[in-house]
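--- STAGE predict ---
source: upstream dedup step, 1 unique chain passed
mode: sequence only
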Amino acid sequence: MSAPTADIALIGLAVMGQNLILNMNDHGFVVCAYNRTTSKVDAFLANEAKGTKVIGAHSIQEMVGKLKKPRRVMMLVKAGGAVDAFIEQLLPHLEKGDIIIDGGNSEYTDSERRCKSLAEKGLLFVGSGVSGGEDGARYGPSLMPGGSTAAWPHIKEIFQGISAKVGTDPCCDWVGDGGAGHYVKMVHNGIEYGDMQLCCEAYSLMKGVLGMGNEEMSKVFGEWNKGELDSFLIEITTDILKFKDESGEYLLEKIRDTAGQKGTGKWTAISALDQGMPVTLIGEAVFARCLSSLKGERIEASKHLPGPAAVKFDGDKAEFVEHIRKALYASKIVSYAQGFMLLREAAKQFNWNLNYGGIALMWRGGCIIRSRFLGNIKEAFDKDANLTNLLLDDFFKKAITDCQDSWRKVVSASVLRGVPTPAFSTALAFYDGYRSEVVPANLIQAQRDYFGAHTYELLANPGTFHHTNWTGHGGNVSSSTYNA
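--- STAGE serialize ---
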């Protein structure tokens, strides 16, 4: 048998897998390609990988035999059972110190479990977020690896070599132990849900309230992309709005208004609830997709449920467009602030040493939420690694102060006209709640103690719990307390 020549193997030859292999090849790494349907290996080598150094394998055993030690095997397969199935197939052929990398959209709890179980067998596991879509995979994705720290020196050159770059900085660094990599990718995807919903609400207001046409809206998004909102999603929205189909009509207006989801936004919202973190904008973005899927019910409801009388906009259109821009920017700041709040809380629970400025840099290029804005987030954490909330950083504090009046005007106008803006609205409600020294939760505590003897704290004596016999016929025994 000839000496092993491959630096890494990649299992899964869908578009993302193929593009990642070609990216690795471009950077001088020899990749062994494998797919369960082995005819795809032959087709890939004969077409997309023709003329490259990529080699193929028709079995797991053959693939492993072609790998240099420590063997590095990366999977880009469907999350869940498929990942576990491939790990089971790999186990008989691997040795102590070999590395298994899951580059799919796996749930972080699965990565935690796999990292522990493989460590017991002497194997190293990496669960890595990969963002950037097909184009990113081919020319430079954002990579978020976590898992067995001992694996990092053996994959660092490959991962940082193929990742996107901001200047000379790679959009890839080690995130942390266990499921940290996939957790950070999950939060990235949750923020992506929020960013997309914010774009939708800006589009809805321009179209529904201002009566703007597609070319006009595209021009606005194009202008926005030259300033503070410069980002991948604003850029592609510019293109989508003006795109025409074969008949010369705008394709966007023909697309059904229902949005699907693969689960990562939902996982972020669930994790936020588990952590007791008010990640409200991502939650609303997930629920907005759920509501969009009720197309039949919405059609029927539109015939029966009245809204406010239609009011023709008679103000300054350019001025209101600027109000929308500022509302979008302020809401985006809140969304990212909430995302980093969740990361900080998860780090406490799982004992991860997360580098928040480093995470912002990982997202600065290559990924779907890449934007100029992330450079400001990195600077905020570079100035203060212990920053409790992005809203308290001087840059973001000034930005949100400058946007506040416009933000309120947009949300008010939306409510008065019956135009749903759940993300704009919840972001503003969070901001007002977060900046409030006093909120009405004292009444909730009194109600809970009244009906369930759950106790309450006094302002003068926090940390000590009291129970009151509110009715005169209740007892003095209290229920257990809980914090949420």
